[in-house]
Amino acid sequence: MITDFYKCSEHKVIIVGLDNAGKTTILYQFLAKEAVHTSPTVGSNVEEISVRKTRFLVWDIGGQESLRASWNSYYCDTEIVILVVDSTDRERLTLTREELHRMLAHEDLQSAAVLVLANKQDMKDSMTVAEISQCLTLSSITGHSWHIQACCALTGEGLSASLDRMKSHVLAG
Ligand code: G3D
Ligand code: MG
């Protein structure tokens, strides 16, 4: 049955971003809703996350420079790209912008939506969503549906809203 197929299907999500942005913490917050002790991701972590009846297969990909070259091996069939930004890391935001636009030009991601998570909003010196949006030139993205959400992976703030948005995106698509 076609309906059963859709009920059972999983939506592939990849979490990308520079090292130390908070990707692994976010993955496990999605899963457990509690902060976990993390260590730098070597290779990748993958977890299945259910938002009521919608299932996501979420890949957390290592962000160290040496690993970024292999991000593209994860792109195939990805429906949502979550880009995690450390909102306090002003110095490397330009690098994040380059990685984002390079990624979106890849043919395997032509139909993927982008969710930017402006993480570490608990820090006093964090940049706002507006600042990050401008620096990443999000408004220049035309071929992809995109959204930016402020969050704090330590408390989980902003993450339920992110999961809701992911769910409505795949249901609408
Ligand atoms: P990565 O997977 O993107 O490399 P991690 O990043 O999830 O390993 O997180 C890197 C560090 O940032 C961790 O600190 C983690 O606790 C911290 N972190 C993640 N999200 C937040 C947040 O919202 N606010 C704050 N203040 N810190 C956060 P350690 O000290 O373990 O290196
Ligand atoms: Mg990690």
Automatic annotation (TrEMBL):
GO terms for molecular function: GTP binding; GTPase activity; metal ion binding. GTP binds at residues 17-24, 63, 119-122. The keyword Nucleotide-binding applies. This is Uncharacterized protein. Mg(2+) binds at residues 24, 41. InterPro entries: P-loop_NTPase (IPR027417), Small_GTP-bd (IPR005225), Small_GTPase_ARF (IPR024156), Small_GTPase_ARF/SAR (IPR006689). Keywords: GTP-binding, Magnesium, Metal-binding, Nucleotide-binding. PANTHER family: ADP RIBOSYLATION FACTOR-RELATED (PTHR11711). Belongs to the small GTPase superfamily. Arf family.
